[in-house]
Design goal:
It is elongated and about 75 Å long. The strands form two sheets. It has an eight-stranded mixed sheet, with helices on both faces. It has a four-stranded parallel sheet with strand order 2-1-3-4. It folds into two domains: 13-111, Rossmann fold, CATH 3.40.50; 115-321, P-loop containing nucleotide triphosphate hydrolases (Rossmann fold, 3-Layer(aba) Sandwich), CATH 3.40.50.300. Helix 8 packs parallel to helix 9 (194-201). The model is unreliable at 1-7 (pLDDT under 50). It has helices at 21-26, 40-47, 69-77, 87-92, 94-104, 130-145, 160-165, 171-177, 194-201, 206-215, 231-237, 249-265, 285-290, 303-307, 315-321, and strands at residues 13-17, 33-36, 53-56, 84-85, 117-122, 149-154, 182-184, 187-190, 219-224, 240-245, 274-282, 297-300. It is an alpha/beta fold.
Amino acid sequence: MKFTPIRPKSLPVILLATRSAEVIANFPADQFQVLEASTTLGIANAIQQNPALIIADLNTVLEAGELSVEVLRTTLDGLPQRAVITSAQFLATPQQYIGETLMASGKRTGIRFLPPHVVMVTNYCGGVGKTTLSLALAQAFQKGSRLPAAVIEAGVGGSSLHARIGAHTSLYDVVTQSAEARKWSGISVYPCDTWEAESLAADNRIQAALKDIIRANTVTVFDTFPTNPLWKWIVEMTTDIIIVATPRPDALAQAEVALRRLADETATLQPKPRTHLVLNQVRTLGEQISMTGQASALIKFDPRRAEALDGNLATPLLGLLYPGWAKGRNA
C-alpha cells in the first residue's frame, strides 16, 4: 500500500483504491490526507484510519493474504451510506463529493466546491417568522463562510424587510432603474412590496435580473408568500424550499397546504428542489415531541434573538443546506 505524505491531522482522510488517474487529479491535495491502496489488505488497514470518503473500484483490487474481495465488499457495505463510492460515481459530480466530505468533516471550505443554494422560505400563514429567518439565514451564512449572500422579498402587502431593517433600495428600483442594492449586516437585500411585485411580473427584465442576483451570491434567500406574482419564477429557480410553521394549528394546516402545492409544482423540475418543514418558535418539550419525525428542524422560541435578528437562529437551517455546518470552521 502506498501512502502519500501525511498532512496535518486536522485534515479529513480520503482513501483512494482506484487506478483512475482522473480521480487523483480531481482531488485538491491541500484539503485532505490522501491514502492510496491497491490490495484488499491495504484497504482493510487503511479503513482503520476512519477515512471520511473511500473511492474504491473493487474489480481492480488485488487480493492479498486471506482477505478476499467479497469479504472486503461486505465490510465496505457496512460503512455509512455515501462513505464508499466508485470512481464513476465520483467523476459524475466530483465537486459535490469533495464539498460534502469537507463539510461533513467540519470544514466550511467545502462550501466553495458546492453549487450555490437558492432558498425559498415560505408558508401561507403570517407571523411564523419567514422574514426573521430569511435574514438570519443569509446573515449567518455570510459571516460564517465569508461568501456573498442575499435576501429577496416576495411577500404580500407592504414590505416586511423595510419594517424589520429600515428603508433600502427596492428590487423594483434595481430592475427598472439599474439602482445598486444596499447591504444590511454584510448581505445584499432587495425589499419589494406587492404593488412593485405586480409591476415586475409584467416586466420582461425580471427573470434576467433575478438570475443575475443568484449568480452573484453563494446563497440567495427568497422571503416568499405563495400569492406573490413572482412565485412561479422563484419556484423554477430554487434549489431548497423551507416551509416555516409554528406549533399553532393554523400555521401547521397552512404549511400542509403549501407542501401539497409545492409537491405538484416541483414534480417535473430537474433537478427537483429539496423541501424541508421547519417548526419555529417551539416553546415546550411537548411541541418538540409532537413534530418528531415530521419536521426537518426545530427552532426554539427566543424573542430576544428574533428581535435582534441573531444569525444563530439560522444554525438549524444552515445544517439542512450544509450538513456539518454546526461543527464547521473555515480552516
